[in-house]
Amino acid sequence: MKKLIIKDFDIWDYIAKKLTIYIGNSLNLNIKDLEKLYLGIMVILLNLSKITIVCIFAFLIGIFKETVILLGMFSVIRLSAAGIHLKSNFQCTIACLVMYLGGAFLAVNYPINIRSVLLIIFILLIILYKYSPADTENRPILGKKHRKELKIRTIKSSLILVAINVVFLNSIILNLLMYAFFIQTICVIPFTYRVFGMKYNNYKEYDN
Questions:
Q1: Distance from CA of residue 50 to its chain's centroid?
Q2: pLDDT digits (tens, 9 = 90+) for 127-150
Q3: pTM of the shown model
Q4: Which residues make Cβ contacts (< 8 Å) with residue 49, sequence separation at least 6?
Q5: Residue 114 lies in a domain
Q6: Total domains, the chain
C-alpha cells in the first residue's frame, strides 16, 4: 500500500508563481527573466510579511511608531551596507522581532543619555566602515570599485542620519538610531557569519 505524501503548502511561493505567470504572459518573458521575476516577487512578499508581523506586534505592545522609525533608519543603512541573510524565513522573522522590537522597547523605556549614545554611534560607525558592505553566498558583491562605492555610500547615509538627529536632538529617536546602527553592525561582522555557519567575503571566490 502506497503511503500518502503531503507536501507543505507555501502560500508565498503559490502567490509568487501566480504573479510570475501572469506578468510573464503579459510581457512575454523568457525563462531566465521569469526566474529573476519570481525571485524578486518572493523577496518582496517575504519582506512584506516580516514587516507586517513586526508592525502587528509593535502595535500590540505600544511601540508601533518607534519600531517604524527604527526600521526606516535601519533600511537606509542596510541598502548599501548589505549583510547576512538567515537561511530560513522563520529564522529571519524571529530575528526581526527580537532586534526591532527589542531596540524600540529599550529606546522608549530605557533611553541612554545623548552623550553616551553619540559615543556608541561613533564606535559603531568605525566598525561599519571596516566591515561593510558584507555579502552572501547567493549575492556576492563583485568588483573592488563597487564595494568601495557601497562603503562610501554607507558612511554618507549614516552621517546624514546622525546629522539630522543631532539637529533635532530627540533622545528617544537618537537611541533608535543607535540601535539601527547596532543591528546593522551585527549583520556585517564576521562573527555573526561564523555563528550561523555562513561564508564571509564571498566575492573572493569570483574576484581575482
A1: 11
A2: 999 999 998 888 888 888 989 999
A3: 0.84
A4: 12, 89, 93
A5: yes
A6: 1
